Amino acid sequence: MSVQRPTSETDDTHVSRREFLRASAVSGTLVASGSIACRPASPPESDVVPAALPPTDSADFPLEEMTIGGLREAMASGEWTARSVTEAYLARIEQLNQQGPELRAVIETNPDAALLADVLDRERGLRGARGPLHGVPVVLKDNIDTSDRMTTTAGSLALAGWVPPRDSTVADRLRAAGAVLLGKANLSEWANFRSTRSSSGWSARGGQCRNPYVLDRNPCGSSSGSGVAVSANLTMVAIGTETDGSIVCPSTANGIVGIKPTVGLVSRAGVIPISHTQDTAGPMARTVRDAALVLGALVGVDPRDPATAESGTFGQTDYTPFLDPDGLRGMRIGVARRFLGFHSAVDQLVENAVDVMRSAGAVVVDPVDLQAGGRTSESGVVANLGAAEAEVLLYEFKAGLNAYLAARRPDAEVRSLADVIAFNERNADTEMPYFGQERLIEADAKGPLSDPRYLAALAASRRLSRAEGIDRTMDDHQLDAIVGPTGGPAWVTDYVNGDHFGGSSSRYPAVAGYPNISVPAGDVHGLPVGVSFFGRAWSEPTLIRIAYAFEQVIQARLVPAFLPTLA
Question: pTM higher than 0.70 for the full model?
Answer without folding.
Answer: yes
